[in-house]
Amino acid sequence: MGGNWSIGGNLTANGTLRPGNSIGIMTVGGDVTFGADSVYEVEIAGNGTSDRIDASGKATLNGGRVDVYALDDKISYQDGQTYTILTADGGVSGAFSEAVSKSVFLTTSLGYQANQVDLTVGLVTEPVDPGTPPVVFEKVAQTSNQKSTARALDSLEQSGSSLELYNSILFLASEDEARNAFNQLSGDTHASVKTGLIDTANLTADAINNRLRTAFAGVAAKDTPVLSFAQSPKGSAPQPFEAVAPSTYDFGVWASGFGSWVDHDGNSNAGGLKSTTGGFLSGVDVGFASGWRLGIVGGYSQTDLDAKGRFASATSDNWHLGVYGGNQWGPIGLRAGLVQTWHNIDSSRSVAYTGFSDSLDADYDARTFQAFGELGYRIDTAVASFEPFANLSHIRLRTDGFTEKAVPQHCLLTAKRPIRPSRHLVCVHRLPFSWVRRMQI
């Protein structure tokens, strides 16, 4: 039974009683009685108003439950409120069995006076120093990302759009729902994007190392299309059987495509990541009589990223420019390079939890600098060739600050901050079940 009612006689409730449509008052001209199985649903607002039953006779409470609903997301509940939910001119006898809040973050208690029943609602908080915002959300967070997000939510101002976001979490009914909301709001997708960009940097280094191994006929080197160039003296034409002067250097122009499909598992703290990258590099290099080969390289790639469990994705356009070089001293090979990459990133994610949903977009730039080196030792056998090698790569990634474009209350501002990961790899290049044949003409 619900609505704004005026009843001239007595009222006995053994089911659910819901005064008002939103906040409202039910007037009873006689006695009101609540049975043991009754449910009294009370809506409250932060300005001190609530649903109420006013009885001209007496109120008899034989148990029953009071279910409390917080209503107004634009009013702060942080200081707590006391509401009168029942008055009876003829007096109040008995008690309700309990008051239950539909919010895991609100605590409720009932107070009984001679002619009224009061409901007190406050925040479930941890003790803090005076002047410090109460700790409401952090106490249910479990992972480090959730705790960081919860601390930020606890510190939100109790006004405007910040209060609306605060209350959207405050009204959640369970700790699991709150933790899901923390995950959605955390923005950890942007950290996952950086993981994808680092993977892309590794691809460019691998492509350049492959070109150098090809140039020196390295083990298991992939075929890379190469155009050679040699210049004849002006005004001269080659003659049959003319002696050929030894060349002190030679040019090579090459191009190579690359790509990857990577699936990073998530954990309790951060979601997983799927990334797909495709692109190409093109370079020109020159070999010297000393054995060194030096070159420059440029290219483009695109990385598509999908954050698992976060309803988020991003696309990065990547432009690469670098220098590289290498040499081969018998079985010993050295390959190294420097690559700078400029990224333009478009990201989109959805924030969705109980009672709230929105979309967030961001467009920002990033830069990756990579220095890498590889040292290998070739071993030839009768049936196969091997090259054990050691590879060291240092990557520096810096993203610009950005603001996600959406409803202002949960825009995420990320400051400029460099990331300096190092990748160390020791393994073996191997060409299995093949034979290396040398031929001299």
TrEMBL record:
GO terms for cellular component: outer membrane. Transmembrane segments: none annotated. Pfam families: Autotransporter (PF03797). It comes from the Bacteria. Residues 246-441 form the Autotransporter domain. InterPro entries: Autotransporte_beta, Autotransporte_beta_dom_sf, OM_autotransptr_brl_dom, Pectin_lyase_fold/virulence. This is Autotransporter domain-containing protein. The lineage of its organism: Bacteria, Pseudomonadati, Pseudomonadota, Alphaproteobacteria, Hyphomicrobiales.
